[in-house]
């Protein structure tokens, strides 16, 4: 997709490094240095123990579809209907559910094993943005 008007996320203080990693096609997650809890979306404090110490760690970029939505009418520019949004429980920690667009010809199914797809989006102004998408796992 190129030169489209599309709403894109704006990195904030806690997520700027997440977006930079995605731009490099690296799938990372924050992990608490004190209790080991993985977390997403990025934030300053651990919801498990309240710690403010954490590091970015590589993650597998794999998970399981737990839900999906088929949109029949595009409500936003830059999306061609119909399209699917999938919600994936990631392997590192099952309670982390990450949404993303679906990148495969066949419709997604609940329980399907998936892997990350780096969705590079050209925007009218500014640098390209990479979003998380999902596709069937190749294993």
Automatic annotation (TrEMBL):
The regions listed as transmembrane in this protein's record are none
- InterPro entries, sorted: ChsH2_C, ChsH2_Znr, NA-bd_OB-fold, Thioester_dehydratase-like
Question: Which intervals hold domain ChsH2 rubredoxin-like zinc ribbon?
Answer: 19-54
Which positions fall inside the ChsH2 C-terminal OB-fold domain?
56-118
| Protein's UniProt name | Unannotated protein
Give the source species. Answer: freshwater metagenome
């Amino acid at each position: 997709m190129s030169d489209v008007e599309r709403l894109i996320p704006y990195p904030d203080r806690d997520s700027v490094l997440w977006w930079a990693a995605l731009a490099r096609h690296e799938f990372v997650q924050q992990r608490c240095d004190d209790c080991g809890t993985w977390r997403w979306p990025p934030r300053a404090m651990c919801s498990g123990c309240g710690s403010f110490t954490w590091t970015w760690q590589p993650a597998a970029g794999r998970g399981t579809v737990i839900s999906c939505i088929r949109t029949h009418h595009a409500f936003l520019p830059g999306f061609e209907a119909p399209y699917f949004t999938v919600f994936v429980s990631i392997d590192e920690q099952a309670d982390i559910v990450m949404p993303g667009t679906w990148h495969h010809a066949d419709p997604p199914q609940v329980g399907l094993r998936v892997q990350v797809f780096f969705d590079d989006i050209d925007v009218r102004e500014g640098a390209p943005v990479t979003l998380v998408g999902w596709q069937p796992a190749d294993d």
